[in-house]
Amino acid sequence: MTRIAVFGTGIMGAPIARNLAAAGHDVVVWNRSFDKAAALAGPGITPVRNARDAARGADAAILMVSTGAVCDALLFGDDGIAEALPRGSTVVVMSSIPVETARTEAARLADAGIDYVDAPVSGGERGAVAGTLTIMAGGTADVVAKVAEWLAPVGRVTHVGPVGSGQLAKLANQLIVGVTIGAVAEALLLVEAGGGDAEAVHRALQGGFADSTIWRQHGERMIRGDFQPGAHATVQLKDLDTSTGLAGSLGLELPFAGLARDLYAKMCEGPRAALDHSALYLELAERRNG
């Protein structure tokens, strides 16, 4: 049994904590809004109000919070958990954060004798609940192998390189997701505007070259008009901002990513910011109607 502290118990963090506890780990949970952590109280899960209390004695600390700045503050800010974590413990950042932020955090924790893995995920709420997340892990091979054993109830861990590589893989993932959601939305709008049956076309393209998880899951969401967030549009925008910003610093031009970023930015100016990222469909439909 491993003692694991989970920081951030929202859409993704809560099912991750449940799956770890169900596998027999001793799980302590903390969330900025304590009510979300308290709702997880039960066999194998102990909610605490103070982040440092969660960190004390933990073998691993999993961070599933919103941004790199929040990760930095949680680790090193006032009452930061880095000072409470034992030497030899491991910080696993499952949040999507900038590559350089991950590398800097790892260096600072190494000075305290604490290992670090950046391990962002793909699979959304469904994958978190089912324990089938794709986990892209950056770090040393031995530390990632250890973390992979702990995270087996959460999903499949793939070691993609040194610290920061997990975030690079996640940016690649989010670029593909953001652009593909736009393509799926446009395809369905084309079918609907032309008088076709969107549901029939959705079924017909499954198994062909255009098929994908996004076509199946988000295409279905668009057809049903179900945009309750499994992954927030604001998070998609944040990751596209990070990927296009990194590309610019490397001298790369990514026109499709840039267009997707601009569309999500427009979407997130209004109330649709609170919706699932597949609600880009609504933004594009409004442009047609306008």
Automatic annotation (TrEMBL):
<dbReference type="InterPro" id="IPR029154">
    <property type="entry name" value="HIBADH-like_NADP-bd"/>
</dbReference>
<dbReference type="InterPro" id="IPR013328">
    <property type="entry name" value="6PGD_dom2"/>
</dbReference>
<protein>
    <submittedName>
        <fullName>NAD(P)-dependent oxidoreductase</fullName>
        <ecNumber>1.1.-.-</ecNumber>
    </submittedName>
</protein>
<keyword id="KW-0560">Oxidoreductase</keyword>
<dbReference type="GO" id="GO:0016491">
    <property type="term" value="F:oxidoreductase activity"/>
</dbReference>
<dbReference type="InterPro" id="IPR008927">
    <property type="entry name" value="6-PGluconate_DH-like_C_sf"/>
</dbReference>
<feature type="domain" description="3-hydroxyisobutyrate dehydrogenase-like NAD-binding">
    <location>
        <begin position="164"/>
        <end position="281"/>
    </location>
</feature>
<dbReference type="InterPro" id="IPR036291">
    <property type="entry name" value="NAD(P)-bd_dom_sf"/>
</dbReference>
<dbReference type="InterPro" id="IPR006115">
    <property type="entry name" value="6PGDH_NADP-bd"/>
</dbReference>
<dbReference type="InterPro" id="IPR015815">
    <property type="entry name" value="HIBADH-related"/>
</dbReference>
<dbReference type="Pfam" id="PF03446">
    <property type="entry name" value="NAD_binding_2"/>
</dbReference>
<dbReference type="Pfam" id="PF14833">
    <property type="entry name" value="NAD_binding_11"/>
</dbReference>
<feature type="domain" description="6-phosphogluconate dehydrogenase NADP-binding">
    <location>
        <begin position="3"/>
        <end position="161"/>
    </location>
</feature>
<keyword id="KW-0520">NAD</keyword>
